[in-house]
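Z., the sequence and structure:
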Amino acid sequence: PGQDAVLALTSETANMQVVLDQVWAHLVPALEGDGPLPTSPTAQQLKERLSHLQIAPPSGLSSTTVLGKGGVFSADPNQSGIHTIAVEIDPEGCVLRVVNEGGEHAVRCGFGRWVDNQTTMPFLIPTMIKLFSAPSLQAPVPLAGAATWSDPQTLTMVWQYLETPHQVTVTCHFEGDALSLQ
């Protein structure tokens, strides 16, 4: 309050005290003093750069060359309790649907673009969300999904968890009537 400043940190570290020590050692002393900070060309460059930051969606093969793959697949017994996995593919993108004891969970991904989602997908949830969410993950988690074909048998989805620094890559490899999910 003495510096009329707010600091927001988005990180996942086991030792946050190290980060806070650096704040007190460097940022707080830099903010002390009377009046506003002088304008700086470097600060203006940083402001301009931050205003244009973006994460590019994954790129690969054209979706039209491999459209038609997908289907519903039974899952082998697994720790996540998943019964079935469905992959639906259309010219605009794909949907991964997972069914477990908790019901159906889905994530939609766009080809060459990000698609916003609210999902309760029961696996691949970042650590911090697991720590602060209910064990059953009843509250949907916001993420953006994008996909591409890495090769004619491999669909690669990238899930960018919004409001966190986390990103997960989900790879679906189709071979005959089988699906391998990593």
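Helices lie at 16-31, 41-51, 127-132. Residues 16-31 form the longest helix (16 residues).

Let me know what you think.
H.
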